[in-house]
Design goal:
With 157 residues, this protein is of the alpha+beta class. 38% of the residues lie in helices and 11% in strands.
Length: 157
């Protein structure tokens, strides 16, 4: 008669815990991570707070999502004068890490440039539509009229 394990020992907190408290890990013999979820989370947090951890994570993200490396990102930023390609701000305080957003064509995956979070949101809300952005521009220009009437406001469709 074979016993099925229902508990696993976490070497970090030195506690036996139910298997449900361990994340899956295909390469481990038992199919579970060595550390329990809480200890693994703490370990990840500490690693990400180091320069090496932050850089490694950033590089993996760029490679996985955009097929570029950190050097390519830096070269792209330099080619834009270290500014948002639309509004020209030289920092992105709305980003957790302060990085500019990589704007890309969602159909082709081609990178268009680096934007601040607000300009990236602007394009996203306008569904990357030149027509919507042009109409928004006309709307702003027309809103300068002191006393708007049907005659002095012209919106093109």
């Amino acid at each position: 008669l074979m016993r099925v394990a229902t508990l696993k020992y976490c070497p970090k907190c030195k506690t036996e815990k139910p298997l449900e408290l361990f994340n899956k890990h295909a390469k481990e013999r038992d199919g579970l991570q060595r550390l329990c979820r809480d200890c693994q989370k703490e370990s990840n947090r500490k690693y990400l707070s180091t320069e090496k951890g932050a850089t490694t994570t950033r590089q993996a993200h760029l490679r996985r999502k955009y097929s570029i490396d950190l050097q390519t990102y830096e070269e792209l930023l330099l080619s834009q004068g270290n500014k948002c390609k639309i509004c020209g701000v030289d920092s992105n305080p709305d980003s957790r890490a302060g990085y500019f957003v990589i704007d890309h064509n969602h159909t082709t995956g081609d990178i268009r440039g680096l934007l601040c979070t607000k300009c990236n949101a602007l394009l996203g809300l306008a569904q990357d539509s030149e027509d919507i952005l042009e109409r928004a521009k006309q709307y702003l220009q027309n809103s300068r009229v002191k006393h708007p009437t049907a005659e002095n406001i012209t919106l093109q469709k």
